[in-house]
Amino acid sequence: MVGAPSLLLHSRAGADIVVRNGTVFDGLGTQGKELDIVIAGGKIASVARRASDRGAIEIDARGMAVAPGFIDIHSHGDGTLWPDPRAESLVQQGVTTIVVGQDGSSRAPRSTAQASDDEGSTQFATFAELWSALDRLQPAVNVASMVGLGTIRGVVVGGKDRPATADEMARMEQFVKTALADGACGASSGLEYTPGAFAPLAELITLCKPLAGRKLPYATHMRNEDDKLIEAIDEAIAVARGAKCPLQISHLKTQGPHNWNKLDTAFARVAAARAAGCDAQFDRYPYIAYQTGLTNLFPVWSRDGSTDAFLARLDDSSTAPRIKQEALAKVELIGGWDNVMIANVVDPADRPAEGARLGAYASSHGVDAYDMAVALLRRSHGNVGMVGFAMSEENLDRILAHPQGMVCSDGGAFAVDGPAHRGHPHPRGLGTFPRVLGRYVRERKALTLTQAINKMTALPASRIHLHDRGRIAPKMAADVVVFDPATIHDTATYAEPFQYPVGINAVIVNGAIALRDGQRGERHTGKPLRALS
Questions:
Q1: For 420-461, how does the pLDDT look when each residue is reduced to its tens digit (9 = 90+)?
Q2: Separation between Cα atoms, residue 504 and residue 484, nearest integer Å
Q3: What is the DSSP letter of 339?
Q4: Which of 427, 411, 413 is nearest to 495 (CA)?
Q5: Quick one: which of 131, 410, 442, 508 has the most CB atoms within 10 Å?
Q6: Cα 286 from Cα 411, distance rounded (Å)
Q7: In a 3-state reduction of DSSP, which class is residue 252?
C-alpha cells in the first residue's frame, strides 16, 4: 500500500522509470501523499518517501498528482483501434485501459455468415481470437472486453423480433460461457438497439447466469432512459437478481426535462437492490448530451429485421404514419429537433450536416425536420450518428458523486489527424476524464479529487477483476498518469470536438512512456486484459 516501506522487485541498481516528488493517489480513495514511484519490468517496483534508485527516465512530478492510469469502464474506443492503434484521444486523457464490448455489441463471437478470410474484418469467432488479434495489433492502451448479448442474439437468432427456441437458448448460453472462459469481463446488453431489444427478461436472466460463479457484472444499456426509466431499472435489477450476478447500469441518466425529477427514485431503486443483496452499481460520462444512432429516435418495432426492412416501413402507408408519430414524440421529449446534432453520416453528399443541429439544418434547406432525418437515413442506409441534448447538469453532479457511480466516456478513440479523424463526434471521446477533474472536481466541487480518481481507477478495476490494475502499489502493473490538478481540463466542444485536453504531464502504459510533455512515446505497449477469477 502507499506509504509502506519500499519493496523492491529487482535487485539491480537503477530502474526503467522513476516518478519523483509527486502527490501520489493510490486509487483506493485515500488522500494523496508525496512519494516516489519506481518502475521496472512493466511493474511498480516500489513506492517510497524517497527512492534511492535512479531511472533510465526520471520524471519530476513536483506539484503534480500521480494516479493509476484511468480505466474507462464503458468505452467504444475499439471502433477505430484497428485502423489507428495510437488510441490518441485516449492516451491524451490519461486513459490506459478501455473496457469495450458494450451496449450488447462485442467483436466476438462472429457469425459463420461473415467471411472468415476478410482481412478487413474486426469481428472474431472467439474471444481467444480477439486477444490474439490485439496482441498482433499492439495498441497504445490496454483492452478488456465484455461479451455482447445482442451480438450473440444476432449470430444465433438473427435480427427478427421472435423468441429464441430451446436449442437457440442453449447455443447462446454456450457462447457466453466460452467468452467468459476466454477472459471476457462481463456481459452487456443494449436493450434500445436491435436485435438486443427483442430479448425478453427470461432470456437475459438465462444468459447472465454464467456470470454468477465468476462474480462478473451484467452491464446494461437499459430498455429505456426517459419516460420508463424506473421500469427499466426494475428490469435490470430483476435480471441481476434472477442470474445472481452483479449489475452495472450503463451511463445512468434521466433523459428529458420532465424526467429529471426521477433521479431520487432511481437512486432509491439501486439502494434497495443493494440492501437486498444485489451488487448494483452504475457509470456515467460528464456531459448533458448523449450520442447514439439517429435510428434510435424511431420505435424499436419499426427496426425489426434488417435496415432495408426499416427503410421500407418508412415508405409503407400502413406503418409510416405511426412511425412518424412515435418518432416526433421522442423528439419532443428531448426538446425538439434543435436538440439533435448530426454526428456522422456515410453519404459524402451529406457531410455538411455533420455538426449541425437538425432543426436549423432542415430549415436552411427548406425541408421539414422529420423528412430531413428520414432522407439522411435513406442516403446513409440507416448509418447516421446523432448527439441529443436532454439531461440536467445538477443531476449529473449527483450521479458522478454517488458512492456507487463510476466514470465512463461511452465514447470512441479519435485523433486530430489520420484514420481516427472521422465524423463530428461527441466531445466525450476526447475530453471525459480531464473534464471530470477540471469541471466537476475543481470548478463545480461535485466530488473530491480522491473520489474522482477512485471512480476512474480502483473501483472499475475491481468491478471487472483486473486485479493488477487501478492502484499505485508494489507489484501492480505500471499504468500511471501524472497531471496538474490546478490546470487539467478538457478543450473538446460540441462545435469543435477534435481538441485534446490540457494538464496531462505524463502517461505510462505497462511501464513505458506513452505521453510526456505533449510528446507521444514511440512504443505501443497496450495489451489485451483477460478478467481474472
A1: 999 999 999 999 999 999 999 999 999 999 999 999 999 999
A2: 7
A3: G
A4: 427
A5: 508
A6: 11
A7: coil
